[in-house]
Amino acid sequence: MCRTCQYTVEKLAASGGTLLPVEMAKPLIPMLVNGTKEKNQVVRSSAEMALIAMLQLKEGDQGSQVMLGALEAGGRDSLNEVITRSLRRATYISVTAAEIDPTLLT
């Protein structure tokens, strides 16, 4: 789920789009934030990369501010904590089309 979210956001940005619409991002962000707290390193890093892409943290803080503003207080606090704790220094690797199941793309 993390890599698919990341792939979708990357393709949206590549086609000249902006942020993932808030209505779509709001239910995904809490799941991705929970993924950053997993003990499994693959799950944790995949969730971090998906959040970096979704919040467009490599381009600045504007995307994260929009999403933080759209969340309720508890979700906002959790996301802000993850951003400051790990996302600013996390490694980012783009998703390749080969990683994504082609049936998901149709």
Tally the helices: 5
Q: Could you say how many structural domains there are in total?
A: 1
Count of strand segments: 0
Instruction: Report mean pLDDT, rounded to a whole number.
Output: 90
Q: Roughly how many Å is the radius of gyration?
A: 13 Å
Q: Could you estimate the helical fraction of the residues in percent?
A: 55-70%
Question: Termini distance?
Answer: 16 Å
Let me know the largest β-sheet. Answer: none
| Beta-strand percentage range | under 5%
Oligomer: single chain
| Morphology call | globular
* Topology as a string of helices (H) and strands (E): HHHHH
Low-confidence stretches: none
Class derived from helix and strand content: mainly alpha
Describe the structure using short key phrases.
kinase; kinase activity; eIF-2-alpha kinase activator GCN1; mainly alpha
Walk me through the structure.
GO terms for molecular function: kinase activity. Keywords: Kinase, Transferase. It holds the Pfam family HEAT_GCN1_C_2. This is eIF-2-alpha kinase activator GCN1. The chain is 60% helix and 0% strand. The protein is globular and about 35 Å long. The chain has one domain (2-93). The chain has 106 residues and is mainly alpha-helical.
